[in-house]
Task: structure prediction
Amino acid sequence: WYQRRVREAVVSTQSTGGLINKHVVGIKAADKGVIMTTKSKGKLSSTTLSRGGRRTIKTIRAATSGSHYRPDLTDAAIRKASAIIRSQKNKSVAKRRSRKSKN
Result:
């Protein structure tokens, strides 16, 4: 009984709750680029970032670290955005070059 009560108390703390936290960062893929969702003054606001990888990462870092978000949220958001941007790049396939036969 005691272990169950301790677990319930830990699960319901503010640091582990999802939407009750003061700062929220969400990153998801758009057609081109990334959609960043942040929470300010109790409202969720979404922004589409599609002007290049370095600018996107700089914007995410400014929106999170600059607004005193938790550092682990900033790192996780940048990692996820980087993975999305990397997956959206065109993959160039090297063409096979055939050698001329020596006749």
